[in-house]
Amino acid sequence: MDHRNHIPENLRKVYSQLHQLIDKKQFIRGTLFYLKNTCGKKNCRCAKGERHVSLYIQQSLNGKLRTTLIPKVNWDKIKEMNKRYREIQKLLEAISAYQWEHIKDKD
Q1: Domain residue ranges in the chain
Q2: Model-level pTM greater than 0.85?
């Protein structure tokens, strides 16, 4: 007997979406945030109030926070990878919720 027959269509779609996202192999967990900084150069635009914008990513690993600056050329790529991670997480939650609802079902 094929076990896929026991999986509802909406959950099969979730598994399919999850597979497609994971297959891209580029996702990253973390919180993205911007900081506005001044560089200290007297003649720079930031000395007149127009500060430089930098993008950072931060995550907790083994109970410690780690933060890194993202080079501007990678901003779009890292944003997309982070978005993909959040989508994967949402799909996993949907699968888990289904499993919780059916935890006492007899196969």
Answers
A1: 27-98
A2: no
